[in-house]
Write a structure and sequence with these properties.
The protein is 33% helix and 13% strand. It has 222 residues and is of the alpha/beta class. The strands form 2 sheets. Strands 4-2-1-5-8 form a 5-stranded parallel sheet, with helices on one face. The chain has a 3-stranded antiparallel sheet with strand order 3-7-6, covered by helices on one side. The structure holds 2-phosphoglycolic acid.
Amino acid sequence: MRIIKAKDYNDMSRKAANIIAAQVIMKPDSVLGLATGSTPIGTYKHLISLYQAGDLDFSEIRTVNLDEYKGLPKGNDQSYDYFMKENLFKHINIKEENSYIPDGMAEDDEEECRRYDQLIDSLKGVDLQLLGIGLNGHIGFNEPNDVFSKGTNLIKLTESTIEANSRFFESYDDIPKYAFTMGIKSIMQARKILLCVSGKSKAEILKESIEGPITPQVPASI
Ligand code: PGA
């Protein structure tokens, strides 16, 4: 594990984008594991700039996203599908059919989890997985638990996460309470992982993740 310090959010974002850019240049058909939330927005902006400057080509890149809220249809402006289109995909030359995200409207939860795991397998795994970290140490939406999850699973979001997400929704009732997330085992099977952390509010959980024991109560500790 390498810890790269950055002087502020923009510096972190630029450094993260450079690492992803290196992956895209060295392996143009990479499978990138992508994340949503406020953390990666700056990273995506820098990737868009590199693309616009003619330095990156995403035409053969495949992407798999970590998670999606249950109950939000594609196109809903709070869905992660929408987030990815707005913050990255519509600005670069990635092919629509090459980006994947769990289906928040799937009727059969177990079947959707199976489908997503098979999809990741069919892509031969993730080359570089981008992660943020939740205030409670979650990665993807794998909340603190007694065990590390394996494959894609449907998670009941904790109050801490619902609270953190409330800034994006009009009322408590509107905030999704469940989400599909790639499992911890699938995340750990990525050939490289880039975890980005920014802001004072994350300092304590970052310290716990890095210096504390490896425990499913702090999913990022793994
Ligand atoms: P944030 O979310 O980037 O919006 O802080 C991170 C996460 O929950 O993984």
